[in-house]
Every structure is written in structure tokens, then in C-alpha cells.
Amino acid sequence: MKRFLRVAGFTLVGAGGLIIAFLVYQLFVTDLINAGTQARASDELAQALVERRVEIATTTTTTTAPPDTSISAPTSVASLQTEPVVPEGEPLGRITINKIGLEAVLFEGVDRDTLKDGPGHMPWTPVPGQPGNAVISGHRTTYGRPFYDLDQLVLGDRIEVETAIGISVYEVKVIEIVLPTDVYVTEPLPGSWLTLTTCHPRFSAAKRLVIQAELVAGPNFDYVETLQAEPREEAA
Amino acid sequence: MNRWLRYALIVIGVGVGLVALYFLFEWAGDLLDSGGAIGV
Predict the structure, then answer these.
(1) Total domain count, chain B
(2) Cα–Cα distance measured from residue A92 to residue A165, given in angstroms and rounded to the nearest whole number
(3) How far apart are CA A160 and CA A168, in angstroms?
(4) Is the ipTM reported for this complex over the cut 0.85?
(5) Residue range A170-192, pLDDT digits in tens
(6) Residue in A closest to B36 by C-alpha
(7) What's A64's domain CATH number?
(8) Structurally, how many domains does chain A consist of?
(9) Could you tell me the residue range of the domain that residue B7 belongs to?
(10) Under 8 Å CB-to-CB from A111, ≥6 apart: which residues?
(11) Which of these, A178, A161, A192, lies nearest to A68 by C-alpha position?
(12) Chain A nearest-CA residue for B31
């Protein structure tokens, strides 16, 4: 009996130690790892944005994630400013939400490793600032927890995303909780939208908190407005 | 058992344990926060 109690005691202490080590790793160590990555990425981004802006200025044939092809091109003067292609895992831009004190380097890609570095842009959706629905995902409670306070946003709050073409400003229009399989929130939308997704509730990956915001200012705002003002061509 | 062999086995055991612990923490971490992506 005495031996059993001793073994049980050691087992419980060991399990407790393991759980504490797990929580320390997830809630603190991953933040430290992410802080170092974000600091390095911030410098890389500054340099990359300069190079991409030079590329934009010197070429007229640059293409990137195409805008929603279901929308017909406008015939009036506003022109679409496109982004150079950014490889997956590389810094794409910077996301700022003053309301929740967020300023983070945004990466291209939503694979496991990229999201450890910071918020990631879904490569198969338009880049923020372009027409359509740009989707960005980010950690809620680990790896720098960029979207920890995303639930504090209310309708009308502003979200800024800086990319090579400039700063695009979005206004929150939709807030919802969905399942991780509800891919409809990533589907194209008319106009220019930004969709942010993160785990919900905090400390659980059971659901997703989704914030959808519409472009209200930025380099392509006039172009998007023109798109929406012009009647769509009907199929012949 | 040779003393050096025993030390080597302890070092290997600790190494394997730490690697296993890392993967266990990563797997369990996904239950806590998987990154927030949808449909991937």
C-alpha cells in the first residue's frame, strides 16, 4: 500500500509538472519565439516594401492574386493598383488595429509554420487592398497572440493594412462565430473586403471568430467604388 | 554495464524524451489554439 501511494504520488507530481511545462511553453515561450521573429520580420518588411514599390513604379505589367473575375472591369478613369507576388512564408505587409493595440507584420500563407510567425494571408484570396475578399488568420492565445482581443472590435471600428501599394483602411461590418469548416466566409465578395479569422473562444480551437470589414479608404478605393457603381454586364 | 554506455543511454533517452515532449506539446497546442485558419 505504501509503495502504491509513493508511485501514485510521483505519477501525479510528474503529470502536474508536465501540464505546467506545457502551459509555460504555450503561453510564454511561444510568445518569446514570436517576438524575435516579428522583430526580424519588421526589418525585412521595411526593406521588402521599398523594393516592391520600386518594382511597382518601374513595371506596368505586374500581376498578383487576381481580383474577383466575376466582376467586370470598369471603363472609367480609376485604375487598379496591383501587388507584386510575395512567396509563401515571406512578410507581406503590416496589420494595425488601434482599438486593440495591434501592430503586427503580416505574412503570406496560412500554413502551421507561417502562422507561428504572425498573422497570415490566405494565398488563394486577393491581397488586402485588392477587390474581392482578402482573408487573414492569426493565433488567439499563443505565438504572440496577435488576435487575442479581436472580440473587442465592434461595428464601425477601423483596421489598417499596409502593403506595397499603400495603406488600405477597412471598417468592421460583420462579426460572427462560425465552425472551422465554414469556408463560406472566405468566398469572394463584391467590392473590397478584409476577413479576419481566429480561434474562439480563447484557449480553444473549437470555433472561429470572424470579423469582416469593408474597404473605406486606400489606393484602390476609387477603383472599387467605380466597380460597384457601374452596372454589371449581363451574359448575352 | 559499462559506465560510458549507461551515460550514453541516459543522454539518448533524455534527447528522445525531449523530442517526444516537443511533438506532444505541439499537438496539444493545436487544441488550445490552432492558428485560426478556416478550412485548412
Answers:
(1) 1
(2) 11
(3) 6
(4) no
(5) 999 999 999 999 999 999 999 99
(6) A198
(7) 2.40.260.10
(8) 1
(9) 1-31
(10) A88, A89, A120, B40
(11) A192
(12) A205
